[in-house]
């Protein structure tokens, strides 16, 4: 029987060989690739780490940062924020002028040609709906436990808009005027976006859309809560995508106002196509596809040509070296982002850093340059020590302000002897124990604390490295931490930093309090000309540094990586991300 | 039987209820659901925190939230109940549609991998059992243990690098140095020699033949540019079909004169099938799943019919083998068509046909074969990753169970009464060895669903694993519970099915 | 607590609603998955061993030591454990390798590994350095140490709980058994990766590998509990247990002194295999972001952190991976050898 079995296997082998040999009858089929009319590819694939989660990214439960990546191409606003944070008027969309400073009054006019991609003009109803949604003036009647009352519209932010009176006008007007009840520093960037198609919301709420949505305009003007509730319900949830984007809602509900419009989605991949109704500069590539790829898998996907570009949300030096190892096929643009790393310290009463000399000693032993060299430079070699809080090196006013803040340069180099001396003067018992918190799961922060510990322990501190999975809750509990390293993301706005620095501000975790700083902020939030804020902020910076509010480390380095077939990507540190100019990108074949 | 099933279902209901409570509480306390918002310092921080608090009912204590979730599930169970959503996620989106799409995509991944792993696992398991203590047996044992010891995501990264990126680079310009050709031929020769074994003389012959065949085949394929526009063509289908028909007949019926008729009808089925495939060519461009199944049905029908007509006194057996041949012809047709579709996919993917991430190429816009080729190529890497693990356990289990059976008295009896080895192995041993395996697969399947979490993450597959993982990361219990509801019910149901199947297959067991 | 229902353990009965066939299969898998005696070992190991009802520790040891693959695994594991614990020391006890895994140093030789096999020399940084210049040998050793601790903890905690629950359920039967086995069913319905991820995420707040090991151990006892219960169900009907009971030996003593020693084989084998599974589980959890958190380290966490380094600095990716594979493989072979030593079935004569 063994012979028989062997015979079988030999037969199988022979058959296998035959099968393989049989494969060779290939007829040389020619690749009938449809040659495109020009030398550019018709699709660009952009890698994103998380699917966009809604068409209306202005709702409070819109959680994906990548909504902005899509909105850059499909939505529009009166201004465009540039990579250096400056504001540029977008005359394609419309024009605006400041009519008066007191009260702050701005007149906006939509372009005559401006239409949604379904052909409906962009006009007064869209502006009025924006006001209705963001002004927070439509109480829903439902009280939360803390007594606050939710608004009908679940808006992500009411900042600025809640200081604006209801714009006057009638359905079909191409212009509208915003009157502020009190001056608002960031008025200009307020209208960089935020308009959604009012005619869709009206129709879905069962209103007539005749006469440029007269019904909706009247309902808002008359504060008709019953009608507005239906509109708000759709505004809040009707535009949401399914989780992980298996498909898009009916694209008729998703008109675009930018160079691209929504086409389809499947398996977390969103396809945009050129908006044929767009009146401004048209997009250069036929299709832009957003592919969702796990952050760690991006480089291999780029290498394999599945994506053409991506912005890593947490670039590491290994990622950068892996990208550069790919050679000429991949280009990497680097720069300093708008978010920055800093060491916060508990300066409040009873805090370990209540004494200014201890703070100074701490600042002197933190190896800032070393941290920059180890953690920022491997990614962006132009990285430098961050010496200001409210301005970052990528912003245009950084150098101007820095020149007016002499105290900002006092802690550039490590001075162990000086730190020891200061601790001695403060009369604290050494080794001085400091519980140093950082986000658990962050190898980067853990490494940084290790480096700080190596240096500061020599000066008489005893740094206890304390990873914390919920570090931001801990920070609000004085006594549970002494120092913490984490990042803030700068928004490029003038007024948004207030709550970090003023007495009892929500994110003033170190319990810092200085009346001069408080007063300066009161003035800053009310300037109506951005340039007026610069000298005020310079004064505030000087105060922060002489008091040693905290120790800033560096602006986090940022990266955008793309296939060298692609032309056009520029590193953009703002929250709008790299696709801010994706309409101008081209990809060679 | 009915009593048994009812009883089991009632107990299972309470078990699932208890485990959902456990899971819900664990997820809810695992972290602070507001973490990402606390970190955020842009405008509207408070509004966003308020919205999240409302969406997740954070003002309600955890047991209360569990009851709310139970109510949401209840709406799906109560007949005529509407608003079946399985709850809302933290962005207030219903979970049910998310679950539906996720299940579809995960099943596609898991079923493909399980079926392949099962096929390969059973075959190697049986061969290793038959050739116990051979080099091949030791080799496979070692490989299986190695597979048990591999971290999935570590291997996945390697697969991406070497199977996707490097292979794609090679496919762009498929050439091979003679040294590489020789090396591959030598390795193939050694492998075959080890697999087939036997006397040293046999081994040398096998080695020589296999090395030569590999070398020639590769050489011909390379010189004819087969790798850029692959196909098997009608001749290929005919040749492979006839060879396979021969093998099936040899395996299932044997080549004894008594069943010689089966061999002829089977080969006839292959030839007729090839003719049918040629005739069906006009259908190929506009094919969809319906026409595909119709064609498959016709091919199988041809096999059965030839068996019945020409089978004579073994017509039942001939029809069965004919059906298998029909299936083989269908597979060959599909392979032929998909190979023909390959250049299109190659061009659509910018010359990089094997992807590292995702489930399909967006906007491919191809016909039935082209889209399916694309989907199949997307399945290559994740399937390999899942297979490595499943294959290891299936091959070990098959081997063990086969050895168990081969030591049974009835096998010895069968041999003693002079049955030939093929009959002993195929009819007496193999079938009985598969009984425990069938139940193992059922038992294992729910576990595989859970295990896909890692694989899906690595390969950017938006299925149940992603639902679970993002849900847990966001401390968003409802999507996690949806994932869990499916796996828990699958566990319970498959356990029940395993018991019933066992009682059905093994008459010694009675369900009371 | 009637004594006449002992046979039910072998057949599907209404006493055991969920875990009937599944349980049997599990037990069988446990026995069979690496199958017959002496795979990779000697062929006639048991030929000269009398088929005793209960193998004495000595014969088991002899069988185990003849198992070549298991011995190979044992040697590799012993080597790794000694290397890992002696090099960077255990807790406060220093080891022979004097680099701290936490301290960044200037890059030497571009961070490349300095390990040389022939002539053998470790050099300054045998496994190279990571992105901030930490000695990667020290990191991998520390990580491996932590992973091994997790593995042992999981193996120990899981086996202890599983044994106790299985023993108590199997011995006392009645409502005790129902409650315990239904509890087992509850935990078993949750996929291991899922429940491990959830408890690991909770363990992160407690810090350290000890919490992680303990927590994972708390959810990985179910398989063993069922197996031990099965063993107890049949053993409790044996004469020696009746004898002990009739002379008034207390239940606790019967369980631990009379029955348990007879099930030690399955328990040891299961604990061993649980350890190799735990190493892999830990790495999967690290990958999903639910594992050990910095500044602690583990092999899984190292691979995850340096996965992007596979191109430019492959040693950061390969070393921890190879250690995981080596440890898991060694433990698997040891488990295989132990199983064969305890349960010498399926000695198939060569046909």
Characterize the structure shown:
In chain A, α14 links the parallel β14 (432-439) and β15. With 589 residues, chain A is an alpha+beta fold. Chain A has helices at residues 2-22, 67-74, 124-134, 187-190, 198-204, 210-221, 225-238, 298-303, 317-324, 356-365, 368-376, 398-403, 416-426, 443-459, 471-475, 498-501, 515-524, 530-547; strands at residues 43-48, 79-81, 87-89, 94-101, 104-110, 139-143, 149-151, 175-179, 260-266, 269-274, 287-292, 309-310, 330-345, 432-439, 461-468, 483-489, 550-563, 566-567, 586-587. Residues 1-37 of chain A have low confidence and may be disordered. Chain A contains 18 helices and 19 strands. Chain A is globular and about 80 Å long. Chain A has a ten-stranded mixed sheet with strand order 9-10-11-1-12-17-13-16-14-15. Chain A has a three-stranded antiparallel sheet with strand order 4-5-8, with no helix packed on it. In chain A, strands 2-3 form a two-stranded antiparallel ribbon. By secondary structure, chain B is mainly alpha-helical. Chain B has a domain at 115-448. Chain B is built from 19 helices and no strands. In chain B, α13 packs antiparallel against α14, α16 crosses α17 (421-458) and α17 (421-458) packs parallel to α18. The mean pLDDT of chain B is 86. Chain C has twelve helices and no strands. Chain C folds into two domains: 2-46; 57-342, MetI-like fold (Orthogonal Bundle), CATH 1.10.3720. Chain A binds chain C through residues 2, 296, 299, 316-319, 321-322, 324-326, 374-375, 378, 440-443, 445-447, 449-451, 454, 465, 467, 469-470, and chain C through 102-104, 131-133, 204-205, 207, 289, 293-295, 304-313, 316, 351. Chain A: Keywords: Signal.
- What oligomeric state do these chains adopt? heterotrimer
Low-confidence stretches of chain B: none
Mean pLDDT of chain C: 76
Q: What is the straight-line distance between the termini of chain C? A: 48 Å
Fraction of residues in H or I helices of chain C:
55-70%
CATH topology of the largest domain in chain C: MetI-like fold
CATH class of the largest domain in chain C: Mainly Alpha
Strand content of chain B: under 5%
Mean pLDDT of chain B: 86
Q: Biggest chain pair contact, residues each?
A: A-B, 94 and 101 residues
Q: How many domains of chain C?
A: 2
CATH superfamily of the largest domain in chain C: MetI-like
Task: Choose one word for the global shape of chain C.
Answer: elongated
Give the distance, in angstroms, between the N- and C-terminal Cα atoms of chain B.
Answer: 6 Å
**What structural class do the secondary elements of chain C suggest?**
mainly alpha
């Amino acid at each position: 029987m063994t012979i028989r079995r062997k015979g079988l296997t030999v037969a199988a082998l022979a058959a296998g060989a035959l099968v393989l040999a049989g494969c060779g009858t290939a007829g040389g089929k020619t690749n009938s690739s449809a040659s495109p009319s020009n030398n550019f590819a018709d699709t660009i694939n952009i890698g994103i780490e998380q699917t966009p989660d809604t068409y209306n990214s202005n709702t409070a439960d819109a959680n994906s940062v990548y909504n902005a990546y899509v909105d850059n191409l499909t939505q529009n606003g009166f201004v465009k924020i540039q990579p250096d944070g400056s504001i540029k008027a977008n005359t394609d969309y419309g024009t605006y002028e400041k009519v008066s400073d007191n009260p702050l009054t701005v007149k906006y006019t939509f372009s005559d040609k401006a239409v949604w991609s379904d052909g409906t003009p962009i006009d007064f109803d869209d502006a009025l709906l924006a006001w209705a949604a963001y002004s927070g003036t439509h109480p829903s009647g439902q009280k939360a436990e803390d007594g606050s009352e939710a608004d009908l519209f679940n808006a992500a932010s009411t900042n600025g808009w809640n200081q604006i009176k209801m714009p006057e006008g009638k359905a079909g007007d191409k212009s509208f005027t915003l009157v502020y009840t009190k001056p608002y520093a960031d008025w200009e960037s307020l209208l960089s976006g935020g308009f959604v198609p009012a005619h869709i919301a009206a129709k879905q709420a069962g209103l007539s859309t005749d006469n440029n949505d007269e019904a909706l305009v009247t309902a808002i003007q008359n504060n008709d809560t019953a009608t507005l509730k239906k509109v708000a319900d759709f505004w809040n949830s009707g535009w949401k995508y399914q989780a992980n984007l298996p498909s898009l809602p009916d694209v008729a509900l998703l008109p675009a106002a930018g160079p691209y419009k929504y086409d389809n989605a499947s398996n977390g991949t969103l396809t945009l196509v050129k908006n044929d109704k767009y009146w401004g500069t048209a997009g250069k590539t036929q299709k832009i596809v957003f592919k969702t790829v796990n952050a760690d898998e991006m480089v291999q996907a780029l290498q394999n040509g599945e994506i053409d570009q991506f912005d890593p949300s947490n670039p590491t030096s290994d990622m950068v070296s892996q990208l550069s190892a790919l050679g000429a096929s991949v280009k990497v643009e680097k720069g300093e982002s708008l978010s920055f790393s800093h060491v916060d310290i508990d300066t409040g009463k009873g805090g370990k850093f209540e004494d200014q000399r201890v703070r100074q000693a701490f600042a002197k032993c933190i190896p800032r340059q070393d941290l920059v060299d180890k953690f920022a430079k491997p990614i962006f070699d132009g990285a430098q020590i961050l010496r200001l809080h409210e301005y970052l090196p990528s912003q245009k006013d950084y150098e101007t302000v820095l020149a007016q803040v002499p105290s900002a340069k006092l802690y550039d180099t490590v001075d162990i002897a000086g730190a020891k001396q200061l601790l001695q003067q403060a009369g604290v018992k050494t080794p001085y124990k400091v519980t140093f918190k950082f986000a658990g799961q962050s190898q980067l922060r853990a490494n940084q604390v290790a480096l700080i510990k190596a240096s500061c322990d020599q000066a008489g501190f005893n740094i206890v490295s304390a990873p914390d999975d919920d570090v931001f809750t801990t920070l609000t509990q004085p006594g549970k931490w002494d120092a913490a390293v984490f990042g803030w993301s700068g928004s490029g706005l003038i007024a948004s930093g207030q709550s970090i620095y003023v007495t009892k501000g929500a994110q003033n975790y170190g319990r810092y309090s200085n009346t001069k700083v408080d007063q300066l902020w009161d003035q800053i939030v009310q300037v109506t000309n951005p340039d007026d804020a610069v000298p005020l902020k310079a004064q505030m910076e000087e105060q922060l540094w002489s008091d040693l509010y905290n120790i800033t480390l560096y602006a986090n380095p940022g990266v955008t990586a793309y296939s060298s077939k692609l032309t056009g990507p520029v590193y953009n540190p703002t929250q709008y991300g790299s696709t801010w100019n994706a309409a101008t990108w081209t990809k060679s074949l | 039987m009915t009593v048994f099933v009812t009883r089991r279902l009632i107990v299972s209901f309470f078990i699932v209820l208890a485990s959902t409570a456990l899971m819900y509480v664990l997820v809810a306390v695992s972290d602070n659901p507001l973490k990402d918002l606390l970190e955020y310092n842009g405008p509207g921080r408070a509004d966003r925190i308020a919205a999240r608090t409302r969406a997740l009912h954070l003002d309600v204590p955890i047991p209360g939230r569990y009851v709310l979730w139970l109510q949401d599930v209840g709406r799906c169970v109560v007949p005529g109940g509407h608003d079946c959503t399985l709850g809302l996620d933290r962005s207030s989106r219903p979970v049910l549609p998310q679950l539906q799409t996720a299940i579809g995509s995960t099943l596609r991944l898991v079923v493909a991998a399980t079926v392949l792993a099962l096929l390969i696992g059973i075959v190697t398991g049986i061969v290793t059992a038959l050739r116990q203590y051979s080099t091949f047996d030791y080799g496979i044992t070692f490989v299986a243990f190695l597979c048990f010891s591999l971290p999935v995501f570590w291997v996945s990264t390697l697969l991406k690098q070497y199977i996707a990126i490097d292979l794609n680079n090679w496919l762009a310009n498929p050439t091979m140095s003679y040294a590489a050709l020789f090396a591959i031929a030598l390795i193939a020769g050694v492998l075959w020699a080890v697999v087939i074994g036997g006397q040293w003389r046999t081994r040398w012959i096998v080695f020589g033949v296999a090395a030569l065949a590999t070398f020639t085949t590769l050489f011909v394929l390379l010189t004819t540019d087969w790798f850029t526009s692959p196909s098997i063509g009608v001749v290929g289908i005919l040749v492979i079909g006839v060879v396979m028909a021969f093998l099936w007949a040899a395996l299932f019926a044997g080549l004894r004169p008594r069943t010689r008729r089966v061999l002829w009808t089977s080969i006839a089925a292959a030839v007729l099938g090839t003719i049918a495939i040629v005739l069906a060519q006009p259908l190929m461009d506009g094919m969809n799943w319906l026409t595909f199944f119709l064609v498959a049905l016709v091919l199988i029908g041809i096999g059965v019919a030839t068996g019945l007509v020409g089978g004579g006194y073994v017509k039942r057996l001939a029809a069965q083998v004919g059906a298998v041949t029909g299936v083989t012809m269908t597979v060959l047709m599909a392979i032929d068509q998909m190979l023909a579709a390959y250049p299109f996919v190659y061009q659509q993917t910018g010359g990089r046909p094997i992807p590292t991430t995702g489930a399909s190429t967006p906007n491919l816009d191809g016909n039935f074969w082209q889209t399916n080729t694309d989907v199949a190529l997307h399945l290559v890497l994740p399937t390999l990753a899942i297979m490595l693990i499943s294959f290891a356990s299936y091959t070990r289990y098959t081997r063990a169970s086969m050895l168990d059976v081969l030591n049974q008295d009835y096998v010895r009896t069968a041999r003693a009464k002079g049955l030939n080895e093929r009959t002993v192995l195929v009819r007496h041993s193999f079938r009985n060895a598969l009984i425990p395996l069938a139940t193992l697969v059922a038992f294992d399947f729910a576990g595989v669903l859970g295990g896909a979490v890692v694989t899906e993450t690595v390969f950017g597959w938006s299925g149940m694993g992603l639902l679970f993982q993002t849900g847990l990361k966001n401390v968003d219990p409802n999507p996690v519970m949806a994932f869990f509801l499916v796996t828990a019910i699958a566990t319970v149901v498959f356990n029940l099915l395993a018991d019933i199947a066992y009682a059905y297959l093994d008459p010694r067991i009675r369900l009371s | 607590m009637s004594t006449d229902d002992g046979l039910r353990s072998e057949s599907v009965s209404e006493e055991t609603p969920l875990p009937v066939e599944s349980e049997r299969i599990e037990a069988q898998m446990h026995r069979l998955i690496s199958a017959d005696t002496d795979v990779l070992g000697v062929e006639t190991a048991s030929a000269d061993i009398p088929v005793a009802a209960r193998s004495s520790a000595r014969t088991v040891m002899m069988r185990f030591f003849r198992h070549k693959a298991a011995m190979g695994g044992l040697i590799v594991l012993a080597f790794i454990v000694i290397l890992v614990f002696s090099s960077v020391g255990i807790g406060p006890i220093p080891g022979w390798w004097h680099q701290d895994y936490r301290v960044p140093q200037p890059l030497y030789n571009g961070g490349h590994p300095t390990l040389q096999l022939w002539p053998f020399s470790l050099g300054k940084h045998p496994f190279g350095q990571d992105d901030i210049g930490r000695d990667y040998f020290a990191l991998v050793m520390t990580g491996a140490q932590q992973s091994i601790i997790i593995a042992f903890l999981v193996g120990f905690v899981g086996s202890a709980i599983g044994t106790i629950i299985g023993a108590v359920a199997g011995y006392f039967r009645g409502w005790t058994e129902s409650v315990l086995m239904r509890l087992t069913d509850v935990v078993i319905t949750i996929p291991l990766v899922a429940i491990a991820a959830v408890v690991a995420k909770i363990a992160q707040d407690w810090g350290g590998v000890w919490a992680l090991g303990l927590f994972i151990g708390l959810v990985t006892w179910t398989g063993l509990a069922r197996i031990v219960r099965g063993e107890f169900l049949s053993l409790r009907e044996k004469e020696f247990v009746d004898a002990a009971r009739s002379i008034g030996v207390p239940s606790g003593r019967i369980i631990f002194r009379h029955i348990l020693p007879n099930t030690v084989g399955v328990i040891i084998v299961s604990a061993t295999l649980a350890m190799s599974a735990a190493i892999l589980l830990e790495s999967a959890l690290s990958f999903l972001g639910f594992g050990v958190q910095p500044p602690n380290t583990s092999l899984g966490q190292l691979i995850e952190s340096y996965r992007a380094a596979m191109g430019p600095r492959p040693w950061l990716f390969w070393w921890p991976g190879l250690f995981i594979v080596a440890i898991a493989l060694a433990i698997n072979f040891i488990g295989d050898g132990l199983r064969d030593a305890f349960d010498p079935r399926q000695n198939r004569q060569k046909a």
